[in-house]
Amino acid sequence: QWAAPRLGGAGGWGRARHSSQAWPCHCPRPSLSGELEGIRGAGTWKSERVIASRQGPHLRLAGEHGGILNFCANNYLGLSSHPEVIRAGVWTLEQFGAGLSSVRFICGTQSIHKDLEEKISRFHQREDAILYASCFDANAGIFEALLTPEDAVLSDELNHASIIDGIRLCKANKYRYRHMDMQDLEAKLQDAQKHRLRLVATDGAFSMDGDIAPLKEICRLAEKYEALVFIDECHATGFLGPNGRGTDELLGVMDKVTIVNSTLGKALGGAAGGYTTGPKPLIDLLRQRSRPYLFSNSLPPAVVGCASKALDLLMESNAIAQSMAAKTQRFRSKMTAAGFTISGQDHPICPVMLGDARLAAVMADDMLSRGIYVIGFSYPVVPKGKARIRVQISAVHSDEDIDRCVEAFTEVGRKHGALP
């Protein structure tokens, strides 16, 4: 009879991992220890709280008896634990197995992968789509495959790390324009006229600030200077726009954005996976040249099944996506009325701006003691002097959940001097 593997405890992996005997003799322990101490000393050490329940608006942390309200997940539509999504994942697991043990072009493509790619392209109203293990991989794989040393890429300075890393991998000429500054972008586009192809790359919605890229203006400049537009929609797909298709739908420029990269790991089920959708010749090129696609195992069947069901739910009704606006407005208006400064533009990412890094950390800890799970962010994740607590609203938060969060913020803010 099969038994669950033991992952720790006496005699298990846990003891060996923490023993000094586990370090190979050639491992540079002193330099690593110094590096780790430097991270702790800078106040940027990232601790991981262990969750002992499903993802959702109400969580239970390991070792804690009471439940907490979760306001820091990317579970925008609440589909991570949706019963239909879970059932679809279980069915797909039973029908198609745990995994493919292969990359796509050898023996790693099942009918469910092709079906999901078709569904993604239909949802975004594009010609084709290609799946990746994550959107980080999708961003790592597109610029190198598409751009040559004769080309140019123009990137917003606050783009996600995966876009930055993907651009570093390509040989194109690189321009960085000031955050959402259209005058600076136009100047850079003028300078880039000497290159064969120009690609403007931007997040659709920026994850640290909750602001939305001015896509109308970007597309107007791209048309004027004959450039292509690429957007990363990880914090937009599923809930921005009338049908949740993202910032290009929200701002009415779906026909002007050439390439959309996004994730299955946030609003669309929350498991894993990413994709690129756009013109079919581009997708065909990525299947031939994109290294993260060519050298990574296929997306696991259960993940494919969950994401496919999430898209079905979205395309059947826009009710879930539309519910986000009222909940977001409720939180933002009540927090502003309480005296807090909330960054961004009507996005469910609601950064509570505090300025001081220590204040953000202490307030986040105090919020947890009141049963509200939020995270403080400070330098180098955000600029110095721009520390904040990032709150994320989900469609499955109730009005009572939101009001309780605001009340806790008000109490903690007054206690620590963030409010009068």
From TrEMBL:
Keywords: Acyltransferase, Pyridoxal phosphate, Transferase, Transit peptide
Protein's GO biological process: L-threonine catabolic process
Region (Disordered): 1-23
InterPro entries linked to this entry: 2am3keto_CoA_ligase (IPR011282), Aminotrans_II_pyridoxalP_BS (IPR001917), Aminotransferase_I/II_large (IPR004839), AON_synthase_class-II (IPR050087), PyrdxlP-dep_Trfase (IPR015424), PyrdxlP-dep_Trfase_major (IPR015421), PyrdxlP-dep_Trfase_small (IPR015422)
One Pfam family here: Aminotran_1_2
Record-listed E.C. numbers: 2.3.1.29
SUPFAM superfamilies documented for this protein: PLP-dependent transferases
GO CC annotation: mitochondrial matrix
Matching PROSITE patterns: AA_TRANSFER_CLASS_2
Annotated CDD domains: KBL_like
Any GO MF annotation of the entry: glycine C-acetyltransferase activity
Catalytic activity: glycine + acetyl-CoA = (2S)-2-amino-3-oxobutanoate + CoA
Top EC class, one word: transferase
Residue span(s) of domain Aminotransferase class I/classII large: 68-409
Cofactor(s) the protein needs: pyridoxal 5'-phosphate
PANTHER family: 2-AMINO-3-KETOBUTYRATE COENZYME A LIGASE, MITOCHONDRIAL, CLASS II AMINOTRANSFERASE/8-AMINO-7-OXONONANOATE SYNTHASE
Family: Belongs to the class-II pyridoxal-phosphate-dependent aminotransferase family.
Name of the protein in question: 2-amino-3-ketobutyrate coenzyme A ligase, mitochondrial
Organism of provenance: Apteryx owenii (Little spotted kiwi)
